[in-house]
Amino acid sequence: MIARLRGVVLEKDAEDAVVDVQGVGYRVNLSTLTLGKLPVEGQPVELRIRTVVREDAFELFGFLSKAEEDVFLLLNGVSRVGPRMALGVLSGMEVPELVAALSRGEVSRLAKIHGVGKKTAERLVLELKDKMKTVHLEAVSRGTAPAPVEGGTQSDLVSALLNLGYKPPQAEKAAELATSRLGADASFQALFREALKSLRAGG
Question: Would 31 disulfide with which of 52, 91, 160, 189, CB 3.0-4.6 Å?
Fold first, then answer.
């Protein structure tokens, strides 16, 4: 099984990136927040990897830190939470904030993450509250971009879009549109997706 990739960022999309390792391109699924921290295309990157093998798929899930990988594994171990949903939870909140929310049993805060809802949030707290003590938050990210925060500011959003390869005027306009449509209190994940939708629609 693949456990680590060290190579060059070849492509970046809304949910994954392609890492070129000595001429072989590996498509890696990443959280929205981690995607926003990746270097620009053509720059070196190193990712921790978890390989998920099913009858119909062979997928790679990537992380910038051991803490993020550990939380992913714990989330994936919760009943009715697969790797895709686990990545979705990691997309909604930075790792230290997520660990804190689970440790404190903040169901209402967790339920605001896209695709989670109250019942899933309650299940996450029930099954993971005590297990959060095992997560060591030593170095959450080695990425080059500033980490967006939940309900991130417009500058965080612009930074993440620039890291996906968009030009400053495009990124700024998309960030403004997303904020005007969803409101400044929307989560970073929601704003990021809205901005990408706007860019793909041509503004």
Answer: 91
